[in-house]
Specification:
By secondary structure, this protein is an all-beta fold. Helices cover 0% and strands 54% of the residues.
Length: 127
Amino acid sequence: MSSSLISLPTSQETQNVKSEDVRQLFVPKEGISPEGAYLTGWGYRHDWGNYNGQGTYHLNWSAVKPGSLVFVSIGEGAHGGGKFIGSARYTLHNVAPGDGVVSIWVNIEWGTPIRLYVDYLVIDPNW
């Protein structure tokens, strides 16, 4: 009997969120009470540096809780903090929010390390 299980990534990386780059979302506007805002959220782009192959990346961020809704977009980074569609294939396998951390499993199919930018959207549903 053969097994077709995907092997887990061997490299691991942990970094801290840069608080000055976090943008709060869903802020109540004038005339809307704070009680009227059902969601709070934050958006953030992190430059992980140069990588290739499979890896698990852990971002320490106190706003993240196990019940947070975390949406992630990954891509090849350009100078100046942007992203672009290049020849490398970037795939995101898993996203797991925890207590003060969000972990992702990424695969970059390219022969040498290249820039990895990750956009995080964290929503606290207040449930």
